Amino acid sequence: MAVRDAARGPPGPGRDEETAALLFERAHYRHDPCWLLPVPPRLCLACMLELLPEPCVSLVRKKHVLSCFQDALLRHASLVMPLVARDQRICIHFISMLFGKIKGETFLIQLTTQLKLEQTICCLLDECHKELCNMPSMRGSLATLTLLGKLVDAVPLLADKLVMEHSDLMEHLLRGLVYPNEGVQASVCYLYGKLYSSPVAAEMLLGHFREKLCPLFLSTLDGAQTKELQINCLGLLRQLLKYDLFVSLIMNKSALAESTEGVEGTPGKTSLPLVLKKLLLSRDETLQVASAHCITAVLVHSPVKHAPAFIHADIPEFLFEHLSSSSEVLVWSSYNCLILLAEEPLFFSKCHTVYGIESVVRSLQGSLKMNNTELHKQGLLLFAEILTRQPEEIKLFTSSAICRDAGRALQEAVRSPVLEVAAEALKAISAFLRKDHQSTPPVQYRELRALLEAMLSRCADFSQTPLSRRPLGHVSSRDSGKAILRRGKFLLSTLEGFRNACRLAVEFQSEPSAQENPFTAPSAEKEDTLEAFSEFLLSACDSLCIPMVMRHSEQATHPNLMEVFLSILHSLFIIVPHMKEKFSKKLASSSFIRLTLELKARFCSSLRHSALNQVCSSFLYYMILNLLSAPEKTEPLSKEELSVVSTFLQHGLPHISSRNPESLAFLSDRQYMEKTARQRQYCILLLFYLAYIHEDRFVSEAELFVAVQSFLLSLQDQGERPPLVVFRASIYLVSLCQDKDRALDEAVVSAIRKFLEDIPDLHLVYTHHPLLLKFFLSYPALMSRFGHRVLELWFSWEESSYEELDDVPSAGQSPLPASLAALFHMLRSSPSILLILLDLIYSSSVDTAHKVLIVLRMFLRRNEDVEVGGLIRGHFLLILQHLLVEHGASPSEGNLPLLLSLLSLVQLKNMSEQELDSMAMKLLHQVSKLCGKCSPADVDILQPSFNFLYWSLHQTTPSSQKRAAAVLLSSTALIELLEKTLALTWTKVDSPRTELLCSAWLLTASFSAQQHYASLQVHQTLSVDLDQVLKVLSFPKKKAALLSAAILCFLRTALQQSFSSAFVTLVPSEAQPPLAPENTVLAPLGTSQVLSLVIGLQNLLVQKDPLLSYACVGCLEALLDYLHARSPDIAFHVVSQPWNRFLLFTLLDAGESSFLRPEILRLMTLFVRFQSSSVLSHEEVDHVLQGAALTDLSTLSNTTLQALHSFFLQVQSMGLLADHSMAQTLQTSLEGLTPSTSSAQPPLDMLYLGGVAVSLSHIRD
């Protein structure tokens, strides 16, 4: 103590006065220091006990002492309470004294409760009881009743003691309840409320309530005027309504009051529903909320029993009105009441929902803008209850506007980030998607689509949310399981909503008024229609529902969820009938046959989950029929066959609930099969067949191979003839599952052949697949009888003609499609199949023959080691002769163009130069003869023919070239055809395809070169208009680089021959004036024509097309040689044009090493040769040589090396080498690199470019 006083410091004058006020000076010296509070205020408890009853002490001082004690008790209860509780007698005396002084103060309650002494509490209780009993009237009982109520509130256990030991106190309370003072009544109700909050006390007071309190209380509640009394009455009512027995008593009294209301001579009684209705109508929000809570408390016990009383009192009407309140508590309370009232059918039959649905929608829209999750959930729960329970005969939405607003509110709700709110929204959406809710015209299909999109999007977002993780990053298995379960429930609710949307679409199909919006303008897009909505359902299921279910099924599989999911898929077949086949194919290729069979095996065996079994069977039934109605790789079934399939599917599918091994064992059973068992086998086989067709091989191929064989033998043993579709499935599965090293037993092959021989045509059981083709061609017994027909079916079913693979050179082969690779493998292993293919040329349609010839062409191109050329060419010669005789003057009929294409193919196979044998010469003669019978319009014949002739001239030895040229030049008709074709180059009418013109110019150039070189005899000259040739080169056609290159090739040949060819006659234009004397030296060219030609060549070079650049440079070389021989000045003038420098630098702008391109090197060689330093200076020549010296010459092509060597020699011969050491190094490198040592891949000389046979060396050199 001394230490504490020292720490506090010396007392000041103010502190002495305060301490003196708290101490009773006359008695303080007698008191033990232990009664002095150890903390400020320095109050002595003993002094307080003597000071308070002293009459001479002022009331102000007494209140100040009590205030200081209360302050100490609040701030330092742990120090004060032990002092007070030290002596129990003193404590009781203290409480009694305080009761007389500060009765009704909260301080007394606080002190009593913190003492936690039973005797002090009993003392206070006794004092209260004594006070009430001794009180002559209730006028002064308010403080005591208030204190007693607060005491029971502070010590709840006191309620039981008060009822048991002071039961006569209840009579005083009844007197207070009828006393005409609402303050006293409020205190009595408050105390009653605390007493009835105890179940024990409530049970003991049951009789008291039944006999006395109930009518008084209801009357008091009905007549209460002050808010305090109203609140306390409602508080007591809330406590009473916790007990079912009290609820029954109150409601029975209310019912009796309502039944006697208005009866003459009957005293007025109070009905609880009417009282609560009056409170609902008050303008006090607190009373409204309390009234709603009381209604809810009544209905919770038995909505069916008690709801009619509130409905007859029209309470729903006012609850709906309160939904527009801005108070969240009132709205939430109204929601609760209405949810419970909705369990009573009378709520709907009296049309309360029709009256209030707009209020519900508006309230839901407003509440969703608030940040109150519970309010959102309750509102959606009410909306869902109304939508679900609303009778179909009573239309809920009286206008489409309300329905639209309801849908938009649900959209906003389902987008809520709070999962519980979104889940409630899903339930409401499911109930909303009902025909009677949506049938108000016009049907808002666009709004429904937006609602479903929001629903599916929310579910997709939730399903992709990662599982919650522990702090260390590990997923708890228990938490993970709960999360998966939540996702499953959410997904199930989503699917149920989507299923209801599908059901809605099905129901609307029979409603003409629901097909489309009748208020849509005729010219507007038909988006708001049932058809568009149905297609949306299919698209949404495909893009969202199916992926979500598949992802979830990887974690957990729930029968109820899968039942709803499969019923959706089944309904989509009906909703979008024009898409059912395509949708079925996609489902089958996505392993849905396997999925459904696994569900049946897992959940539907032993008669479990009959609903799931029915849905699975129905889904499989419709999917199978859809797949068989529009198959991709076989003929569709007839109506009779579909009827047969439908029958055995209906009988067999519901009984399939076994796993795959059991199904295979059942299929392999060779015992006698009854009809029902055989139908099950048919179903199993058909399911495996369709699964395999759509690449879903969930059954072991080896086991299925054995099972199908046993099944076929079983059919043969019992003398049965299966349905065609079943036999088709059997053959397909046997061919696909056949082991590579294991052949079928002869008995099975014999059985298959017998079954096939009984079928009118093989196409009835044919399924397009490479392995099926291999199956028929692998067994002589089947190939000899059905090989021709199966190959014909094969090519007729091939969708692609493989033309895109036809132009691929062998050096750059792309991978073959699986079907072609399989066929090529069979052709290599069995060359006799080629004879069947050749036979198809005669007997098949043009389309089939076209496919056969393209396939043969690719086969021969890709299999150069297969020596069949002699056989094929011999057959072609016979075929060509036969067709020429058969068709005569009209060779374009039949398959002749295709045969010529194949003839080009055989020629293409000979990539190296070979001597032309006698058969080749005969073919040349026949083809040239054929061309002579054609007109330029017969492009399909002439194009492959010209290619063949051109190829024969260039892909052979020089001696054979001479012989071939002599044969072709002897064909007058061919030369005349070429002249007519060339003349069409500059005509716009009846112009043939550019490819034919290219071939014609190349052939003409080749003929002219060979005739001039070998001095061959000319039987027919060919006339060409030189002016038109120059004009075409000056104004070339768009996208005709190859044609320009071919014409340049012809012009280069003419220039090299100095226009003196015995074969080609250059005819001047009729409008051209005679040449001036100074131009005769260049005849037949004029100076202006030369300059125009040079400009045209420059323009073509700028296009930077490789082949065209070769042709331009070659033509420019020939032109300058021609000019230099006749007029060197003109040649030097042409070379020295400034435009040439710009041209050169334009070409060099393609990259750093662009100067090493062969055509640019040849062009620079030309400029050096003619000493055109204004175009290419000495420094620039030096720069080019330095760049070449720094280049790895071994990586360059032979063509580039030759051009570089020529450039170097030209520079050397002109004496332009400045750096002799560098020049010596470059020369050594060039001499050391022969064409054979270059590492660059030598390019193919003969190419097909856009269907035109082209020799690169012919164009280049």
General description of the model:
There is one protein chain. This protein is mostly helical and 1261 residues long. A two-stranded parallel ribbon has the order 1-2. The protein has a two-stranded antiparallel ribbon with strand order 3-4. Helix 33 (580-589) crosses helix 35 (610-629), helix 42 packs parallel to helix 44 and helix 57 packs antiparallel against helix 58. The N and C termini lie far apart (125 Å). InterPro entries: ARM-like, ARM-type_fold, Immune_Signaling-Apoptosis_Reg. This is Meiotic double-stranded break formation protein 1.
Largest sheet: 2 strands, parallel
Terminal Cα separation, in Å?
Answer: 125 Å
Question: Helix- and strand-based class?
Answer: mainly alpha
Radius of gyration: 53 Å
Our estimate of the beta-strand percent is under 5%
Topology:
Layout: H1 2-8, H2 13-22, H3 25-28, H4 45-51, H5 59-75, H6 77-84, H7 88-102, H8 106-115, H9 118-133, H10 142-154, H11 158-165, H12 169-178, H13 182-196, H14 199-204, H15 206-223, H16 227-240, H17 244-260, H18 272-281, H19 285-301, H20 303-312, H21 315-322, H22 328-341, H23 345-349, H24 352-367, H25 373-389, H26 400-414, H27 419-432, H28 435-438, H29 445-463, H30 477-508, H31 530-553, H32 559-575, H33 580-589, H34 592-603, H35 610-629, H36 639-652, H37 660-668, H38 675-693, H39 701-717, H40 724-737, H41 746-757, H42 770-778, H43 780-797, H44 818-829, H45 832-843, H46 846-862, H47 869-887, H48 896-909, H49 918-932, H50 939-954, H51 958-969, H52 972-983, H53 994-1014, E1 1022-1025, H54 1026-1034, H55 1041-1056, E2 1064-1067, H56 1087-1102, H57 1106-1126, H58 1128-1135, H59 1138-1148, H60 1158-1169, H61 1178-1189, H62 1198-1213, H63 1220-1232, E3 1246-1249, E4 1252-1255, H64 1256-1260
Parallel strand pairs: 1-2
Antiparallel strand pairs: 3-4
